[in-house]
Every structure is written in C-alpha cells, then in structure tokens.
Amino acid sequence: TTLPEADLMGLIRELDSLGPNKEGLTNALKVEYQMQRKYLDDFAEGKTSTTNSGEQTQISIGIKAFFNATKTKMEFAQSARVIRDGMSKPFGEIPWSDLPVVETNRSILKRLIKGNAIGNILFELLGPSSKSFSKRKSREEVSVTATQLLLALKIYKMRHDKLPESLSELVPEFFPQVPLDDFDGKPFRYLPGKKLIYSVGPDLKDSGGEGFHKNSEDYDLPFPIEF
C-alpha cells in the first residue's frame, strides 16, 4: 500500500486472475476419484501388498459379506459431484445435504448387519473432506477479494484523505459492484469506525468482525485497514 496510485490500481486488476482455478480443481477431483475407484476395485479383488495369491483370495472371500464395492464407489462419486457442482457457488449455498451419509456413530455390529461395514470405513478414511476442500477454496477467494478491497480503500484515502462511509463508494470506479463474500454470497462487510473489512467465515454467522478465539466456535475472517 506504499506504492503509487497507478501501481495500486494495476494490482487490483492483476488480482482478478488469482481466483481459484475451477477447471484445475475439477480435474484434480476427477483424478482423485479415478485413483479411489481403482483402489476399491483392487481391494474387492483381494489385491493387497502381499505377493501371495492364495492370501489375496482369502482376503477377497473374507470381505465379500462386508464390502459392497459398487455402493462405496457411488458414495465417492457423489461426494466428488457435490464439490464439483459447488465450485462456482458460495460455501453457504452448496447443498451439503446431498453428500453421502455415513453413520459413524453406529456400532460395529449394526454396520456389519448393513452389509457394507468395510466400505463405510474406507469412505471415512479415503474420502475427501468435502467441506474442508470447499472452505479452503472460499478462504482463498476471500483473501484475494480482501486484498483488492484494501488496495482500493488505500487509493480512495489518498484521493480524499479519508476512508469511504460505505464500500458502495468504490463502485463503479474500482468494482462493478461491491465484492461478495465467497462464504455467504453477500457483500463484503465493512466497519469504517473500526477500520476493518471482514468475511463471515465458514460458520456463516456475522460476528461483527470478531476473529478466531479458542473458546468460541463462531468467528469471522477480519482484515484490518492499517493506513
């Protein structure tokens, strides 16, 4: 923020290209799913690290009653599909209820009766943490947006010797609209009195710009205006 105005404006425009690479993320999901599917197929066939084919056959026969490879692959596919379809959506608008439900609190006996106890365990161990994946994507998006806003606010202050009363004063010169928070899809929050901009963060609750506290589960992602 110590650079000349023209350089700051150039950086705002350059940052437009630093949002998440949705095509790259989608391709990564596809590759990950293909690897998971191959692992599950090999596991169903009893292909383990051992080189003894007899042991492999015994493993395959032993797990058949407790492992449904097709059902497990469908769970992995559905999980990847939810993430893929949510790439262009704010975190809070992704239909998380569409994720496969694995009842981790069931007893081992009840899991065995269901017929896919091993598949459930493998899904828990190997499946991507869908929400964590999307949280990271939104955090990166928010970081880029906040940086652009800070640069625009710096230019505004250089011109007017004060901060704007509202982020809407940065429209349309700096942005076509007030930039959105990639967590809840609403305009980025701004507290001129506290010299703060912030995102509501993964809890999707507006805590007035309060950052992380170890004794609280609700927190925002604040970006102080240090000029």
Keywords:
5% strand, 7 helices, 3-stranded antiparallel β-sheet, 227 residues, mainly alpha
In the predicted model, the low-confidence regions spanning at least 5 consecutive residues are: none
Supply the number of helical segments: 7
> Which strand-content bin applies to the residues?
under 5%
Characterize the overall form. elongated
Main β-sheet: number of strands, strand sense, barrel status? Answer: 3 strands, antiparallel
Overall radius of gyration: 24 Å
Return the structural class.
mainly alpha
Topology:
Elements: H1 5-14, H2 22-44, H3 53-63, H4 69-85, H5 108-114, H6 117-126, H7 130-160, E1 189-191, E2 196-199, E3 221-224
Antiparallel strand pairs: 1-2, 2-3
Helix pairs in contact: 1-7, 2-4, 4-6, 4-7
Explain what you see.
The chain has 227 residues and is mainly alpha-helical. The chain is 48% helix and 5% strand. It contains 7 helices and 3 strands; from the N terminus they run H-H-H-H-H-H-H-E-E-E. It has helices spanning 5-14, 22-44, 53-63, 69-85, 108-114, 117-126, 130-160, and strands at residues 189-191, 196-199, 221-224. A 3-stranded antiparallel beta sheet has the order 1-2-3, covered by helices on one side. Strand 1 (189-191) and strand 2 (196-199) form a beta hairpin. The longest helix has 31 residues, at 130-160. The protein is elongated and about 75 Å long. The model has no long low-confidence stretch (mean pLDDT 86).
